[in-house]
Design brief:
seven-stranded mixed beta sheet, about 350 residues, 12 helices, four-stranded parallel beta sheet
């Protein structure tokens, strides 16, 4: 049996660990052959492949990024995209496709499986941790670790200069990174997309910390929205809109309203880069092993997921139905540390 593998959407640490586990178990236990598709859905759309065997995945466990490349290509945006993908799979004699991705990539896999009969198995990855049906996604733990280390380092410089330091982390529609890293890093304010924030209340928390002779750290997800306005965005050099800018805007508001000097650190793509954490390597490896088992059992149209400490299978359509956001009760738990 020949099995295809692709990594789609934005990159994150742990992708290579999934690929490695898929290939190692597939070759050694089931005798499968593997075909790697380049750059997400662009690979099967245009027939771009790379050899994928045990030597190709050797030494990749601690490596960040993806050896297959990635893209945000939507093949179904092309009128004949589904047919082209099926033709590519047939040309390379691929009988199953393991898709490693987030909501967009797995959403495409769901439609290809349900509407066009493409035999897909999904593996959840995204640093945002916003996929329903799984307790954790590949890449999330590493991103939280990177953000926490940055917050730890910023405490000392905030104290030295008696400044407010605003840390902008990723999280366009869900604030999991902000909540986890903010709590772990001892932030004094955590702002998430799920809870529109009151700038005056934030300034009140900041002022109260200074009264206690303590320079505050504010962690804000880049999708957080003030109550009195819309989402803060910035434009790229070509005029394209990018999800970032709330950190700079908030620092300027805090400085203007409190008279305290404020600076912003935007962590950006550092949260996606570098070597995966031990937990992400563990999770990615287990996901890969179980994804191959799905293929072996002919259990297509499914995604592997973490429930507690168990790896389970759920329908792909369930995995992309909606958005997994921070529960208000979970957010309220950390509020005792604000201000």
């Amino acid at each position: 049996m020949r099995v295809g593998v692709l990594t789609g959407g934005r990159d994150c640490p742990g992708l290579n660990a999934v690929i490695r586990a898929v290939v190692r178990k597939g070759v050694q236990e089931y005798g499968y052959e593997f075909v790697g598709f380049r750059d997400g859905w662009l690979g099967p759309l245009e027939g771009q492949t790379v050899p994928l065997d045990i030597p190709a995945v050797r030494g990749t466990l601690p490596r960040g990024g993806t050896i297959l490349g990635s893209s945000r290509t939507d093949p179904l945006a092309h009128r004949d995209g589904a047919r082209r993908i099926k033709d590519t799979l047939a040309e390379h004699e691929v009988e199953a496709l393991i898709t490693i991705g987030g909501r967009d990539t797995l959403g495409t896999a769901t439609r290809l499986a349900d509407e066009h009969g493409v035999p897909c198995v999904g593996v959840p990855k995204t640093i945002d941790n916003d996929l329903p049906g799984t307790d954790c996604t590949v890449g999330f733990d590493t991103a939280v670790g990177v953000a926490t280390q940055a917050i730890d380092r910023l405490h000392t410089t905030a104290e030295s200069h008696k400044r407010v330091l605003v840390v902008e982390v990723m999280g366009g529609e869900s604030g999991w990174i902000a909540v986890h890293s903010g709590l772990a890093g001892g932030a004094n304010v955590i702002l998430v997309p799920e809870q529109p924030f009151d700038v005056e209340q934030v300034c009140g928390w900041v002022t109260s910390r200074f009264r206690a002779s303590y320079a505050p750290i504010v962690v804000v997800a880049d999708g957080a929205v003030p109550k009195e306005g819309g989402m803060v965005l910035r434009k790229g050099p070509a005029g394209q809109v990018r999800l970032s800018g709330v950190g700079e805007w908030l620092a300027a508001e805090i400085e203007h309203r409190t008279g305290k000097e404020a600076r912003t650190t935007v962590l950006g793509h550092t949260q996606r880069g570098g070597s995966p954490s031990p937990f992400d390597r563990w999770l990615a490896t287990r996901f890969g092993l179980h994804a191959v088992d799905c293929v072996h059992d002919g259990d297509f149209g499914t995604m592997v997921a973490l429930r507690g400490t168990d790896i389970v299978r759920i329908p792909l359509r369930e995995a992309v139905a909606g958005l997994r956001q921070v529960d208000p009760a979970r957010y309220a738990e950390v509020g005792v540390f604000f201000g």
